[in-house]
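Let us practice reading a record.
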Amino acid sequence: MHRHRPLPVSIRALLVIALLVCMRLSADSSTSANSIQQNAAAQGPAAFARAAATALAHGRIDDAQKMAAARGATDPEAAAVLARIAVLRGKYREAQATLEPVVAANPLGNAALELGLLYQSIGRGGDATPILTALYRQNGGSSDGDALVRAARAANALGRARDANALFRDAERTGADPAAVQTYWGLLFLEKYNRREALKSFQAALKADADWAPAHAGLARVAADDDPEAAMAEAQRAIAIDPTLPDPYVLIAQVHLDEDRAGEARAELDKVLASNPSNLQARSLIAAMAYVKDDRAAFDRAVSQILEINPAYGEVYRVAGDLAASHYRFDEAAALVQRALALDPTSSRASGDLGMHLMRTGDEPGARRALDRAFRADPFDVVTYNLLAVLDKLDGFVTVQDGEFIFRMDKEEAPVLREYAIPLAHDAMKTLSERYQFTPKGPILVEIFPVHDDFAVRNLGLPGMIGALGACFGRVVTADSPRARPPGTFNWQATLWHELTHVVTLQMSNQRVPRWLTEGISVYEEGRARPEWGRDMEVTFARAMDKGKVLKLRDLNAGFTRPDTISLAYYEASLLVDHIVRTYGEPALRTLVRSFADGIDTEAAVTRTLKVSMDDLQSGFDHSLDQRFGAMRRALHDAPSLTEGMPIEALKTAAAAHPDSYLAQLALGEALASAGDAAAYAPLERAAALVPAAIGPESPHVIMAALAERLGDKPRARREYEAVVAADHTNVEAARKLAAIAQETKESRVSALALDRVVALDPFDAAAHSALGRIALTAKDPPTAVREFRVALQASPADKAAAHTDLGEAYLAAGRADDAKKEALAALEIAPTFDRAQELLLNAIGAKKT
């Protein structure tokens, strides 16, 4: 029998205290509500407006409403607050009815600002403009901080960004609420793509008031492009403060869409609509989602519903265009934005977007017209300004049309690059078209930039894109030139092949292939074109496997959006493509790419074309990864007995105890090599056997090559550098050292191999071209000699007279006596007594006579 036990006295006392606390809290809560109303009624207009604005920014909507209700709807400041709350809830007519009679009598206060902004949001721009203009002009000369904020916001709404910026600065100086003014100021900077200044403003706002939810939402926007995880965290902070604030939910939805999670995105947008069923931002993104799913009926319905709220809301088409562009559908994006401009011809944002989309289709004249229109409307938009600047630079580029390709290159680089880029592009397109049984639509525009930030602006309108080397939009390819980065940091030829592969897969799929597949095929095809091009990530991937960081297939697309996983995602996608080809065959891969043209998602495409579920594909892929990387993964596993600074004897013990540990063997080899001890070769050879794909400065072959040079063992150094060059396609210094050793030992085959790599990575190395030309002449290959000497001459050689003479001798060997004579004369003009040039001239004249 369960009996009720009497409570100990101490517990009874605690319960009494707890009850008293609960009663006190309840009483305090009631008092608080009453005091809010009493204080609001007693406050002056400015103090009330600030208190209400703070309550709204802190997510205390009910408190703000009670404060305003206490003053009555006829009070101008209370009307402004009540109307703003009604707008937040989508009750636009109620807000309008509250504001209009008040504004008629008080045309310069917060109520007027709210009415002007409301009119703009429901498509009554003609009614909004005089209200906002009066606010801007009449409040702009005030010494009151709050009036200056109103003037600044009105100026911004009128598109007067410069004036708005100046007014926000004045408001800051004259005592306006720093959290409010800095947040509005930050939003202005964000609209103009000035993220650096926006960040400063939002941080200043939060320094003034850490709970100002709109500032947290602004910080999320600043972080969204570069760090989605940080953006999501900041958005969640904003939501925790104010669960009704729409922008954080929209941002989270956009991140989900970037990661191919449409269901999660829709759930976030539904949260916005739960608070405000008329929110145009959320409704527009839902419409855009229907568009990219090719559900035109749903898209048209959504657009119709939006235009009932605001008949001039061209944003619905602009947002759809933006999402279509993120899915590689640039022609459609341009058409959608043109519909946006038909509804709202004054939208500088839409004109700027149109310019961006047209640049991605290759219509640069049309892009300039759109961007000029955007710039005239808003000369402070950083992206528009940058795109026009890069178009001006492109006007100075050399244009070369060759078959289906149009190349645009810097005039200083074109004479060299055209010798390599154009043949490589034709080789790639011929190979890929045959392999995928598809001929892309041309012309294909290829633009190569000597300045990386110009490349970045051409693609996104802003500098940056630090990790990117090239981009493809279907019929347009952009890339860093070899001079955009230091030689040896990347391989521009591999980049061009990669991007031209995108031309094929994007067009094959009607611009609908998911990122994991198009990137996976491009990386995969790099390795098929040149095996060494595909080895950059082998060791990194094996280490990721060992640490359990390999992405699951359903998360692979999302991996491309995150800085910490993007490199892994590229390589893993290529491994998945390799697995598909090996398991299901190349025809299945082609069919898979084409299937996306029907608008289906990855799971449906896999099931239809490969006849397996995603789970089955995952299982088979996991097995293939274990077979391929299992041994390397085990070899790379951390050796538990290794510590930094261990003496050589301890390293020997560790290496003996862990003969299959790459790290243990490498550590011993490095220590012995640094001491100049030939005993280093044994552990380094073991390390190289365990992980043949190791590249970079810690490659066992790099260490052995340096040791061999130190010990004067040229044959060993040559062998090791040859191994480095075979595995590491960006190591230009190893190629140069190999070339130097091979030239000393007169091994022309090895010398040619090394010099080919040097000029592939650094085509502006005149000495390397000259050396290759001499090898070609010796090998009785005049056409190759002519090309190499011609490029050497264009690459600013140290001795131009010798370069002209080299080229002339190659022309003479090719039977082109007239060209040989011209080069001899050019050399003699520089150096009249140059013996080789004089001899060349005589030989050229003699050859012409015979």
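A brief commentary: Strands lie at 398-402, 405-409, 444-449, 470-472, 476-480.
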